């Protein structure tokens, strides 16, 4: 069984076709083999291929389910084959799966990964997927015995799940950053023997030193659904009486799907096959302590590790006693827009469940901790705070002592940056819930994440499964996100993502999710078969002032701009997926505008409800367009400054002689930047603040009215939004992006000082 760790990585994948020649027997007898006595379990063996100057070694830790492999040698590249190979013979269908969890940095081109090779000779045909310490991943293959290796380099140095899968005459290679979502990248036809060797390869590129790599959760001949679900998390008691305990937990994740849960009381299975994420234990004894755990199961019978135990003590009788009031309420820190509160814990005859924080008599938030950060405040303003405690029976304490706090005066800088979440996996789009939660997508992992009370939840809101598709070095995956205007009551989330069609083509679609307690499930597919490709998938998704759903798709490598082809278009739908009757090309067409190369950002100008869109140009000539229904914006015939053509709408401004690679955009509604348009830049590694003018009833942007913010401070910046409290939030796109440098991605808040 494999328990997935939370791995910070790039999601990248590839596909290889091999036509297998029928032969019999293994190739083991061709060369002398080296076995490692008692170091690794059978049927694993070891061979130092190509006689490296320093002999490598291998060991296995059964408690951690981890192999450690050391190897030296010139390289696995070109005609060189010098490395340490821990392998086993293999025939028939199956797969090798491993997590490359660490690698020593003996040389920038040291390599560690998984390999399939025809023989144990140094000149053998082979296919491998190898990780270098600083120069990214490389997919390598030698198609002829004694020939020269070839490779495709992938820009990632993060730890990654890797898989080579063999089915008949097809071998596919995959990489995943979480062991849940796998995809493919291209294909290769190669003649090799039917009987092969499969294993783990390590080389140092430095002949005088060893490189060591660790491989977790290695599985060979793993077919079908081999991954158990993740263990349930966040067990908590929702209510406790003298004879009952109602508990809940956060749903587990699985690469295929969680079927149900088994519940244990004091390590004894009490209730099997529970499909919900809540359960009430009955028939308990008063004044007794119990330990509850939960395990998840999938349809293949794989069972997760047990959750962390939840200890609950039943009451002696029906609980009518409220907790004591919190005491010693103080402010530990404050800014011009926030106040951090701490207090002394309350006591209760059973237990305190949560604290409610009140600002000027209105509930500002709740927390089980004894501290809370109240945000969205006005500078140089006095606020009154109190805190009350609640127990599981719903009894509420008296209020704490009242605390009066005056926020700091506004700073000379309009905003102060602060990192909200770090070590993210290619975040792409952000939106806010009415209760203050921050939802965002991670493109490569297929995850929707949530920040609650300033803290990133470790469990995703959802991790997309099949047919979700992410291809490495591409611009597809999980892209846009928007919350329904009535999210407080219907909990709808709209997302745009790439997927594989039934005929194995890449496409994009928009789906609606339904969220409950920070967990979402698929509710409805709104539109499918939007053109997909390696690049130019568009993907930004917003809900307009008219309560319609707007989104765009790119037109990568396609010259077709007719209304029957959906690439290179902006779209408008009703929130249920139907087509609005007043769409510019009729009630049967979702198209809103045309002639787009790769639209990346959408925003409406406050007070006018004009739609602005950012768009990638070819090499340069990135554009900011004012979108009017039914208009044609030129691509593929025109872009940048040559769009003053009949029937073509030119951009408001375009990058001339430089490249912005603009992405998310947002209008500012508060503070000194009110009315300005903020445009995030990927290649430009900045945010451009644009002043919007007016001429002849149309918006204008002059090149002299551009201000460049945070240049090279955060790297590639993907999206920016304004929160209801006036804060600005943006996400970076450095780790897992095809042009990123691998540095950890962040969600950054610009806290207002006005």
UniProtKB/TrEMBL annotation:
It holds the Pfam family GSDH. Residues 231-318, 325-410 form the Fibronectin type-III domain. The keyword Hydrolase applies. Residues 1-29 form the signal peptide. GO terms for biological process: polysaccharide catabolic process. InterPro entries: 6-blade_b-propeller_TolB-like, FN3_dom, FN3_sf, Glc/Sorbosone_DH, Ig-like_fold, Quinoprot_gluc/sorb_DH_b-prop. Gene3D superfamilies: 2.60.120.200, Immunoglobulins (2.60.40.10), TolB, C-terminal domain (2.120.10.30). GO terms for molecular function: hydrolase activity, acting on glycosyl bonds. Keywords: Carbohydrate metabolism, Glycosidase, Hydrolase, Polysaccharide degradation, Signal. This is Cellulose 1,4-beta-cellobiosidase. It comes from Paenibacillus etheri.
């Amino acid at each position: 069984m494999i328990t997935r760790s939370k791995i910070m990585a790039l999601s990248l994948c590839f596909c290889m076709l091999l036509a297998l020649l029928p032969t019999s027997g293994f190739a083991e007898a061709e060369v002398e083999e080296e076995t490692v006595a008692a170091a690794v379990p059978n049927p694993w063996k070891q061979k130092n291929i190509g006689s490296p100057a320093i002999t490598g070694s291998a060991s296995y830790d059964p408690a951690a389910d981890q192999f450690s492999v050391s190897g030296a040698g010139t390289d696995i590249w070109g005609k060189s084959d010098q490395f340490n190979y821990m392998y086993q013979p293999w025939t028939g269908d199956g797969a090798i799966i491993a997590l490359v969890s660490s690698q020593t940095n003996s040389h920038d081109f040291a390599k560690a990964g998984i390999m399939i090779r025809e023989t144990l000779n140094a000149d053998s045909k082979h296919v491998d997927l190898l990780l270098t310490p600083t120069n990214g991943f490389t997919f390598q293959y030698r198609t002829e015995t004694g020939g020269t290796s070839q490779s495709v380099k992938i820009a990632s140095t993060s730890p990654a799940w890797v898989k080579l899968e063999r089915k008949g005459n097809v071998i596919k290679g995959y990489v995943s950053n979480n062991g849940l979502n796998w995809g493919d990248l291209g294909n290769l036809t190669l003649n090799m023997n039917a009987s092969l060797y499969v294993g783990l390869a390590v080389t140092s590129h430095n002949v005088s030193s060893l490189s060591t790599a660790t491989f977790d959760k290695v599985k060979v001949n793993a077919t079908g659904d081999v991954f158990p679900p993740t263990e349930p998390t966040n067990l908590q008691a929702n209510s406790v009486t003298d004879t009952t305990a109602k508990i809940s937990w956060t749903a587990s994740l699985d690469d295929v799907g969680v079927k149900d849960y088994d519940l244990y009381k004091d390590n004894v299975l009490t209730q099997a096959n529970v499909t919900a994420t809540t359960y009430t234990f009955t028939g308990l004894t008063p004044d007794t302590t119990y330990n509850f755990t939960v395990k998840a199961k999938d349809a293949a019978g794989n069972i997760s590790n047990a959750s962390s135990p939840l200890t609950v003590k039943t009451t002696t009788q029906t609980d009518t006693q409220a907790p004591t009031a919190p005491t010693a309420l103080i402010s530990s820190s404050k800014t011009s827009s926030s106040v951090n509160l701490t207090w002394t814990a309350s006591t209760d005859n059973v237990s305190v469940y949560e604290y409610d924080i009140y600002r000027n008599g209105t509930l500002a938030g709740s927390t089980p901790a004894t501290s809370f950060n109240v945000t969205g405040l006005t500078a140089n303003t006095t606020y009154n705070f109190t805190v009350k405690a609640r127990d599981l029976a719903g009894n509420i304490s008296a209020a704490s002592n009242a605390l009066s706090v005056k926020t700091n005066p506004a700073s000379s800088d309009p905003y102060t940056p602060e990192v909200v979440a770090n070590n993210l996996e290619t975040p792409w789009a952000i939106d806010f819930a009415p209760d203050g939660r921050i939802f965002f997508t991670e493109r490569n992992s297929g995850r929707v994440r949530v920040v609650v009370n300033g803290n990133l939840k470790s469990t995703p809101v959802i991790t997309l499964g099949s047919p979700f598709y992410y291809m490495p070095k591409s611009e597809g995956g999980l892209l846009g996100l928007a919350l329904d205007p009535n999210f407080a009551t219907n909990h709808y989330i709209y997302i745009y993502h790439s997927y594989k069609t039934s005929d194995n083509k890449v496409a994009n679609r928009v789906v609606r999710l339904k969220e409950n307690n920070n967990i979402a499930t698929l509710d409805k597919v709104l539109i499918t078969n939007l053109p997909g490709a390696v690049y130019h998938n568009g993907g930004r998704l917003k809900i307009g002032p008219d309560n319609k759903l707007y989104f765009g798709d790119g037109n990568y490598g396609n010259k077709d701009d007719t209304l029957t082809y959906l690439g290179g278009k902006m779209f408008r739908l009703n929130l249920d997926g139907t087509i609005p009757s007043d769409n510019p090309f009729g009630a049967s067409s979702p198209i809103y505008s045309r002639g787009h190369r790769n639209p990346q950002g959408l925003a409406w100008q406050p007070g006018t409800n004009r739609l602005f869109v950012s768009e990638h140009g070819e090499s340069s000539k990135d554009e900011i367009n004012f979108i009017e229904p039914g208009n044609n914006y030129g691509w593929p015939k025109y872009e940048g400054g040559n769009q003053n053509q009949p029937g073509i709408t030119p951009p408001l401004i375009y990058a001339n002689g430089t490249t912005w690679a603009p992405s998310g955009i947002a209008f500012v509604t508060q503070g000194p930047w009110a009315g300005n348009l903020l445009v995030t830049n990927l290649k430009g590694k900045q945010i451009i603040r644009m002043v919007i003018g007016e001429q002849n009833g149309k918006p204008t942007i002059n090149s002299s009215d551009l201000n460049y913010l945070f240049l090279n401070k955060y790297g590639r910046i993907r999206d920016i939004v304004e929160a209801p409290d006036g804060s600005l939030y943006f996400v970076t796109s450095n780790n897992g992006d095809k042009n990123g440098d691998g540095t950890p991605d962040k969600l950054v808040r610009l806290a207002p000082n006005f």
